Amino acid sequence: MASPRDGLEAEETEESASRRGSSGVEVVFPSDPAVSAPLCPHGPTLLFVKVSQGKEETRRFYACSACRDRKDCNFFQWEDEKLSEARLAARETHNRRCQPPLSRRQCVERYLKFIELPLSQRKFCQRCQQLLLPDEWGRHREHQVMGDISITQLRRPSQLLYPLENKKANAQYLFADRSCQFLVDLLSTLGFRRVLCVGTPRLHELIMLTASGDKKSNIKSLLLDIDFRYSQFYMEDSFCHYNMFNHHFFDGKAALEVCRAFLQEDEGEGVIMVTDPPFGGLVEPLAVTFKKLIAMWKEGQSQDNSHKELPIFWIFPYFFESRICQFFPSFCMLDYQVDYDNHALYKHGKTGRKQSPVRIFTNVPRNKIILPTEEGYRFCPLCQRYVSLENQHCEHCNSCTSKDGRKWNHCFLCKKCVKPSWIHCSICSRCALPGHSCEGPKDGCFICGELDHKRSTCPNIATSKRANRAVRKQKQRKSNKMKMETTKGQSMNHTSVTRKKKRRERAHQYLCS
Ligand code: SAH
Ligand code: ZN
Ligand code: ZN
Ligand code: ZN
Ligand code: ZN
Fold first, then answer.
1. What is the DSSP letter of 216?
2. What does the alpha-carbon distance between residue 19 and residue 16 come to, in Å, rounded to a whole number?
3. Ligand 3 centroid vs 99 CA: distance in angstroms?
4. Whose CA is nearest to atom 8 of ligand 1?
5. Which residues contact 253 (CB under 8 A, 6 or more apart)?
6. Where are stretches of biased composition, namely Polar residues (predicted)?
7. Minimum-distance ligand 1 atom for the alpha carbon of 172
C-alpha cells in the first residue's frame, strides 16, 4: 500500500481553506459536554473561534450550525455572554416562529388529501413550492401554479421542487441520473435492504421508485434532510426534518424514534447510511453527527456483533480524503466520480467542463465494489479494486495512486506519485507547480488549492468566473419564469430564504487544479 499521505498536500490545503471558510472561522468542540449550547431555529448552535494568521482569538462565540451565512440565521452569542431573561424569552419566541408552519402529521394529512383529488384539481404552487388543496387556490391566484400533478410527479419531488441554491447553507446539488442509478444498483447488488439517506433526496426518491416498481428489490429508504419542502411528499416513516450539523430532529423525539427504529430493524442487519452533505460544511461536526447515528445503530446490535461497523457511503470531494479518514480510519475513497445534474462544472462528458472531483468514501470493502467499465473504470488486479482508466498502477508505490482520475507521475525524491503538472523543487524539497514561489504562502489558493498563489491571482479564476456566469445565466432564465419569494407563514421553503442575490452565488469554489 502507498503511504496514506500520498499526494495529498495540495488537497489538505484546499481543505483547510474550506474549513476556515472565507471568514476564517473554526468550530470547536468544548471538552465539557455538560455546557449545552444555546438554541437557534436550527437546533443547538456550534461554538466557533476566529482564526487569523493561524492564531486563534481567545473569545469564542456560538453561531448557527446549518447556516454559514448570517443572512440565513443571524444567531450570535459570545461564549461568555450572559443574556437577560427578556432576551432569552424573545429568542425562544423567535425560534418558535421560525419553525415550519405545519407539523409532520399535518403534512402527511395534506398529502393524503391531495392524492385523493382528481388529477385536474392537483395543483402545485411553484412560487411557494407547495402542493395546494382546493381551498388554498385563491391565495395563490397571482402565483405561477402547475396543474395536473400526476402520481409520477409526486414520486419525483426532486424534479418538481427547484434546487435550493444558497451558497453557504443548504445548497442542493442533485445527482445526475446515471450516478443516482449507479448508486441504487450498487446498494442493491451489495444486498442492502434499508438505506438511511442523509441529505440525498434524489437517491431517496429513486430507491422508493425502484422499490414500488419491482417487488424483488424492495429496498426501504428514510430521508433525513433540512429541506422541509420534502415533508409534503412523504409519510412520517420515510422523511424526517433534520439538521446533519448538529444531529437535530426538528420534530423532536417522535422523529428521532423513527430514525432509531429504522437503523435498529433486524438487529441492524442490512442497513447502510448514504450521505452527500453540502461541501461548504465543516467535516468535524458532520463526523460527530455520523458517530451519533452509528451509536444509535450500535445500540440495536447483539453483543457478538460489537466489532461490526455501520456501512456508510459519504459522498464528498476527493481532497477531503485525509480529513475524512482522520475521523473514520476504516474509510477508503473510491475512484467513482459522482456527477450532478445542476452543477455546470461537475457534469460528465461534453457539457461538463471538468471531471467531477466528488467521490464516495466508504467502509464497505473496495474489492466488493464494481465500477462500470463502460464509464471508464477498470479492475486493477494488484490493488484488487476498480480504478479510473487513467489511474495507472505505480510499481514503486505499489498502488494506483491518482486521486483525481488523471495519470500521476512518480517522484523518486518525494518517494511518491504527484500530480502530472508538478515538478520537483530542490529549494522546497518537494514537488510543486512550476513557477511557484518557494516557501510561499502555506495556506494556498482557495480556488485550486495550489500553494504558490492566493485566490485573487489564481489562473483558474477566469474559468471559474466564466463557468459561474454560465450557471448564472441559466438560472436567471429559470428564475425569470418563476419569481419566488418566501411568503411568511405559509411558505414551505422557509429553510432558505432564497433571495435573488443569493441565487447568483455559486456554491462551489472548488475546482480541480
Ligand atoms: N446529491 C444529493 C443531494 C445533495 S445536496 C441528491 O441528489 O440526492 C445536499 C443535501 O443536503 C440537500 O438535499 C440539502 O437540503 C441537504 N442539507 C443541507 N444542509 C443540511 C443540514 N444542515 N442538515 C441536513 N440536510 C442538509
Ligand atoms: Zn440557525
Ligand atoms: Zn403560491
Ligand atoms: Zn508512485
Ligand atoms: Zn518531488
1. T
2. 5
3. 19
4. 200
5. none
6. 487-496
7. 5
Which three cell numbers, joined as nine digits, stand for 414? 518525494
How far is residue 168's CA from residue 476's CA, in Å, rounded to a whole number?
A: 20
Q: Which three cell numbers stand for residue 441?
A: 504562502
b/e string for 60-99 if b means 16 or more Cβ within 10 A? Answer: bbbbbbbbbbeebbebebebeeeeeeeeeeebeeebeeee
Residue recorded with cell 414520486:
155
Residue 405's identity, in one-letter code, is G
In ligand 1, which atom is closest to the CA atom of 170? 18
Q: From ligand 1's centre to the CA of 474, what distance in Å?
A: 22
> Is-above-0.85 flag for pTM?
no
Ligand 1 pocket by Cβ (under 6 Å): 66, 170, 172-175, 199-203, 225-227, 242-245, 276-278
Phi and psi dihedrals of 243, rounded to 5?
-110, 115
pLDDT in tens, 308-323: 999 999 999 999 999 9
* Measured distance CA(412)–CA(416) in Å, rounded: 7
Q: Which of 202, 161, 201, 150 is nearest to 482 (CA)?
A: 161
Model pLDDT for residues 267-309, shown as the tens digit of each residue = 999 999 999 999 877 899 999 999 999 999 999 888 777 789 9
CA of 300 relative to ligand 2 center, distance in Å: 32
